[in-house]
Amino acid sequence: MSKHVSLKAARRTGTGRNAVKKVKAAQGVPAILYGTGLEPTPLQLERRAIDNLLSHAVGENILVNLEIEDDGKGGARLALINEVQHHPVNQAILHVDFKAVSVNETLLAEVVIEPLGEAAGVKVGGGLLEQSLRSIEVECLPKDLPEKVSVDVSALELGQALHVRDLPKLPGVKYTADEELTVFLVSEPKTTEEAAPAEGAATEPEVINEKKPAEGEAKEEGKKD
Questions:
Q1: Left, alpha or beta for 172 (phi > 0: left; psi -120 to 50: alpha)?
Q2: What is the pLDDT of residue 170?
Q3: Which of 34, 68, 101 is the endpoint of a domain?
């Protein structure tokens, strides 16, 4: 299950482009906290702290105990990092959205899907493991939020697939996606002509790995050519 980490924040007194520039000049990151019955609160984070937090996380939807300076309420607010905006070139963090949550209320969050093991269809059959869903939305209480969903793909043969309905059942966690959606598929290895996408063709699922032919097999094929 997801661990709650502490993160310090300070209130932002100013808003708008000039205020944001001042925050960034001070090595800070602008942020905002919102939630049901809560007035949106502009915040600023220490860049080093948020960089360190996200660099050690599997995904970006993380539960944090948000410690706001001069909040006047005492303690920390439980919040979900709901969205992180990155610079399109250098990927630096530009802005962070926090959503206040209650320990007694369910939440929705995107969780990373991680394959475990090497599919039999790749290891023995030379196939390709394709991952169609990189993450999935879950509904659960904050205490049950998983850091990631790990899926054992080692039993998958050529042509076989794992769907949302096959994902591991986690205590207190509900997958909101269509149960028939494909998550992993072991497909036949593509020839050179098949691998070249036609102009304007849709992007295919990411290929996780493939089994390369043994050195002897490669030399034998070279002789035949």
A1: left
A2: 96
A3: 101
